[in-house]
């Protein structure tokens, strides 16, 4: 205790010096400032000395009690005496985890914090396949040192195939109940539980063992050594199979049984036992060509019968999807094999089928059946007998796709392997085919000189399609045409037979789908243009047809040609440009239009529209036109009423005592103001100055509105006022003034 008192005294001195409580060079008055502090320190020292007989050095001698519980009290100090930089020992598991029934787990762990308000926990984790730790459970540490876990419910959590690590966690709880100063130690080393793995042993395709086994060796470097007997003890093979040269596959990766090491995380060991070739025979099953993909070689145990061979290898009869092949049986040396027959070594077993053979004499066909391996000569050849004909040869065809296999003279040359067609070839009379061409039709294609006006001998029983195919190779129709062969204007097909001397005409026929019709319609357009002309797809229309030279109607201004749908035009660099149907083409632009497949083009002449402006007659007066007796003025769609009065003047004829006030229209009209437009709605006043600035968009009816007037209305008064000199002037509407007539009188002229 004396030693501890001495240490505490030294500690107090260090604190005083560290914090500058006593300075030697200070003035004497300043030392009095700290007398109370020194007195308090000495008092604490005395108290500790008195209590020395009851204090134990538990921190150094006993891990069951903390420093805070013995030496220190909350009402004196509340901080850790020891530096956090002290050496820390990681938690350790002392006993072996690789045991079947673990009764207890011994460990050693050190507290991470010794503060009274701290909590320490030892946490156990398992590592997954990606080395990510997952907590298993945790226990609270009360003290540093050794400990045991005997709780069966916790020990059961250490399951096989687990990698275990530990660390210590600590945290503190302040006076307010808040958690602070959370810390974790570094992780311990990795510990391994017992290793279980799936063992599969196979004999060929047969699985003889499939079980979970326990490996006895302890893991090292994340691997477990496996001794041969650990695998071989579960199965003893017979003489036909051996562990020697067996194929070992661990999780899909082949390895050797010698010095076998499996990764601790491995899941499956597969042992593919090797065959002892001294006790096996080589047997081959061979199928006809139609089923040759099923040909297979087998290693079978010596002394095995054919029936057991079929059963053990799960050999099933191969059947056809159609009726051409009917399975007959298995044959060895042309004799059917019985189930009891013992199979020898290096033998070939043939699977034979009753195979359909189609006989063709050129007129009728007949089906017969032969066993694969039989000769064609075993059929009844009377079917091929024909009066005045003899068989020159036989053509053998594949019945599946009619492809030619070969041509034979003697039926004994062929052994049956698959379903075939036997076609007899006869010597017979032939007919002359004269190849000709119409002079006019020649211009629509080219014919090689080698076949022009050529005569060919052709047998009656042979389809002409073969000849036509050869002729087509030497004939090239022009674009938009196809070649046909005709006889007496009738088209000859490839399946036709020639039974008499025939003139075979080469005929170039227009392909309708490769042509489109181009029309130009409008009043006064030539009929042959409006009826339409044919143009080859993809061509400029000026390369093949006549284009309009006139626009038709002359009393209306021609604006352009409008198509019935969008179309293509030839552009620069041989690129075609898509043009909207709304665009108006001028006549000189039509030639660049390019045709498209399936799209007839119709261009319609578009003219400027004329609208009727009708002046209504009223009781108070009328509006007349200088030309004709009609009160309807024709106005161009792009002009105003004033423009239309240049050649057809408006004359106002009010009754006596009335004068023109304004006009009204039956529709809303737009008035051109020079810098924009204004709308005058139905029934609203239209002043004289606005009337001739109206731009019609449809037919209009305008009604003049008259009012009682005191203005002189006689012609004499008008003459006196020099507005109109004579009656003739009034009628001719001619004035001496060179000033614009609209500026003098406006567009309206008055007769009183």
What would the keywords be for this entry?
752 residues, mainly beta, Immunoglobulin-like, Ubiquitin-like (UB roll), 6 domains, nine-stranded mixed sheet, five-stranded antiparallel sheet, 15 helices, 38% strand, disordered N terminus
Shape: flat
How far apart are the first and last residues' alpha carbons, in Å?
149 Å
The poorly predicted ranges are: 1-85, 717-731, 733-747
Please state the average pLDDT score. Answer: 81
**Main sheet overview:** 9 strands, mixed
Q: Helicity level, as a percent range?
A: 10-25%
Helical segment tally?
15
- Bin the strand percentage: 35-45%
Total tally of structural domains: 6
The count of DSSP E runs of length 2 or more, i.e. the number of strands, is 47
Provide the structure class: mainly beta
> How large, in whole angstroms, is the Cα Rg?
59 Å
């Amino acid at each position: 205790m004396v030693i501890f008192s001495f240490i505490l005294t030294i500690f107090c001195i260090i604190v005083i010096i560290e914090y500058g409580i006593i300075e030697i060079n200070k003035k004497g008055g300043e030392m009095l400032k700290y007398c109370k502090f020194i007195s308090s320190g000495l008092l604490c020292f005395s108290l500790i000395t008195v209590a020395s007989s009851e204090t134990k050095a538990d921190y150094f001698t006993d891990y069951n009690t903390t420093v805070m519980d013995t030496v220190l009290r909350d009402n004196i100090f509340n901080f850790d005496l020891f530096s956090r930089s002290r050496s820390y020992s990681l938690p350790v598991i002392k006993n072996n985890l690789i045991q079947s029934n673990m009764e207890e787990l011994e460990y050693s762990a050190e507290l991470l914090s010794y503060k009274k308000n701290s909590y320490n926990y030892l946490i156990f984790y398992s590592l997954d396949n990606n080395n990510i730790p997952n907590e298993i459970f945790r226990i609270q540490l009360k003290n540093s040192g050794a400990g045991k876990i005997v709780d069966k419910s916790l020990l059961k959590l250490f399951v096989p195939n687990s990698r275990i690590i530990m660390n210590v966690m600590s945290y503190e709880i302040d006076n307010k109940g808040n958690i602070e100063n959370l810390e974790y130690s570094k992780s311990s080393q990795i510990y391994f539980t017992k290793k279980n793995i799936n063992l599969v042993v196979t004999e060929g395709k047969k699985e003889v063992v499939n079980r979970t086994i326990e490996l006895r060796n302890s893991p090292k470097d994340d691997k477990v050594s496996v001794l041969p007997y650990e695998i071989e003890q579960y199965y003893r093979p017979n003489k036909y199979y051996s562990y020697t040269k067996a194929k070992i596959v661990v999780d899909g990766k082949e390895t050797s049984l010698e010095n076998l090491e499996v990764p601790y995380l491995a899941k499956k060991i597969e042992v593919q036992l090797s065959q002892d070739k001294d006790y096996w025979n080589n047997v081959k099953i061979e199928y006809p060509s139609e089923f040759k993909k099923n040909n297979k070689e087998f290693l079978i145990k010596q002394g095995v019968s054919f029936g057991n061979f079929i059963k053990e290898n799960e050999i099933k009869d191969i059947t056809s999807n159609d009726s051409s092949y009917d399975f007959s049986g298995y044959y060895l040396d042309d004799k059917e094999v019985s189930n009891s027959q013992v199979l020898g070594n290096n033998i070939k077993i043939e699977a034979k089928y009753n195979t359909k053979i189609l006989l063709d004499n050129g007129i009728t066909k007949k089906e017969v059946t032969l066993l694969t391996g039989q000769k064609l000569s075993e059929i009844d050849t009377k079917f091929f007998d024909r009066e005045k004909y003899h068989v020159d040869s036989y053509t053998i065809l594949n019945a599946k796709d009619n492809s030619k296999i070969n041509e034979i003279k003697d039926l004994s040359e062929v052994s049956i392997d698959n379903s075939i067609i036997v076609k007899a070839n006869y010597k017979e009379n032939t007919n002359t085919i004269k190849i000709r061409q119409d002079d006019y039709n020649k211009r629509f294609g080219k014919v090689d000189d080698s076949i022009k006006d050529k005569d060919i001998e052709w047998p009656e029983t042979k389809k002409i399609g073969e000849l036509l195919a050869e002729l087509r190779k030497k004939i090239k129709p022009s674009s938009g045409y196809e070649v046909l062969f005709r006889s007496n204007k009738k088209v000859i097909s490839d399946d036709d037979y020639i039974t008499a001397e025939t003139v075979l005409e080469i005929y170039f026929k227009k392909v309708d789908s490769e042509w489109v019709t181009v029309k130009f319609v409008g009043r006064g357009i030539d009929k042959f243009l409006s009826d339409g002309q044919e143009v080859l797809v993809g061509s400029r229309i000026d390369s093949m047809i006549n284009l309009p030279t006139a626009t038709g109607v002359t009393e209306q201004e021609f604006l352009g040609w409008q198509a019935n749908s969008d179309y293509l035009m030839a552009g620069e660099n041989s690129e075609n440009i898509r043009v909207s149907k709304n665009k108006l083409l001028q006549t000189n632009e039509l030639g660049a239009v390019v045709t498209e497949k399936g799209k007839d083009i119709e261009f319609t002449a578009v003219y400027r529209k004329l609208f009727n402006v009708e002046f209504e007659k009223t009781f108070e007066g009328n509006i007349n036109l200088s030309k004709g007796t009609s009160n309807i003025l024709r106005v161009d769609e792009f002009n105003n009423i004033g423009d239309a009065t240049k050649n057809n003047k408006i004359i106002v004829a009010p009754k006596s005592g009335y004068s023109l006030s304004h006009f009204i229209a039956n529709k809303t009209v737009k008035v051109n103001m020079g810098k924009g437009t204004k709308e005058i709605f139905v029934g609203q006043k239209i002043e004289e100055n606005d009337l001739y600035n109206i731009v019609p968009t449809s037919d209009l009816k305008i009604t003049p509105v008259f009012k009682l007037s005191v203005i002189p209305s006689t012609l004499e008064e008008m003459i006196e006022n020099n507005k109109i000199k004579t009656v003739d002037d009034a009628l001719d509407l001619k004035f001496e003034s060179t000033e614009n007539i609209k500026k003098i009188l406006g567009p309206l002229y008055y007769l009183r």
